[in-house]
Amino acid sequence: MTRPLEGVIVVAIEQAVAAPLATRSLADLGARVIKVERVDGGDFARSYDHAVHGSGAHFVWLNRGKESLAVDLKTAEGRDVVRRLVAKADVFVQNLAPGAAERLGFGDLRADHPELIVVNLSGFGTGGPMEQRKAYDMLIQAEAGLIAITGTPDAPAKTGIPAADIASGMYCAQAVLAGLLRRWRTGEGATIEVSMLEAIVEWMGYALNTRMYAGTEPERMGLSHSSIAPYDAFPTRDGQMLIGVQNDTGWRTLVTDVLDAPELADDPRFTTNVQRVAHRAECDAAVAARTSRWSASELDERLAAAGVPAARLKDVGQVADHPQLRARDRWREVGTEFARIDALLPPVTFADFEACMGDVPALGEHTHALLVESGVDADEYLRRGIAR
């Protein structure tokens, strides 16, 4: 069972979410990831909270399978250690503040290592009036228009997860893989830039096209959908059921086979999706009047049997024990510095390879070994506080 990225070495000066997600994805595929952290506390995400048996919830999510090197990059000796490790690496990833990598002397790595894959991840990209602006996830969501179309008609909202961080992190991982593939074919390295703003604007997709070419601002629809009806949460005797009918055949199946209301199938207000959207309030009211006759579990069974797209509205606690994830054996145990925890396998499943799912490192857990590997006096560096 060969690991897809076996033998690939990644050095990452990273923090928070975006870059750590990218490199964790590479570690899951078998790459060796050396995470460079500050000596005074390490990655900021370590201390966002202590929700996971004393570890930060973000950090354990994003950093399994890595080696932690805590070194002071403000010192020439600390920077030299990183350059020595980069000399043996295939990939260098960084998401420091704009210009920081250059000030530290890591802006010219390919001059000495032309075969290196370098990925620079930033909020707004190089150049332009916003290059130096802070780039937290919520701010990027706002600048990209995502908040404008998320929420209800009464109030906008950011997404419940850091969508801009995740989008740019996944594009970063994709960029690394593309760079490696080209290098293996041609021997040529790459310098790649990933912008959080551009990543999430790309995700705006159809909403952006709607505004650019139809001239209308997409509405905030809550659980509903601007172009499809019925597409919302509908009441049951004891809760709610989400139903999304995307075509006219599905509408007929819903009202005839599930809701026992065949008269609605040929109602001229509802026969096509365009008509249903035009009469959304009446359509939703007609569906709601009938879904409320069943319990959520009864309606769920009827919808599934008829093949109508639907889902129960689950809270996060229910997701943690989701029967589909359990049935597919998607949880694995990994170590942290305080306890063993359950972690979800990544969604990409190879038929002949299981993701590596390594432990989450303590700050500086691998510092001594990495200093020795880089050829410096490890004990001296630790004694002087250059490393931890």
TrEMBL record:
Keywords: Transferase. Gene3D superfamilies: Crotonobetainyl-coa:carnitine coa-transferase, domain 1, formyl-coa transferase, domain 3. It comes from the Bacteria. GO terms for molecular function: CoA-transferase activity. This is CaiB/BaiF family protein. It comes from Amycolatopsis decaplanina DSM 44594.
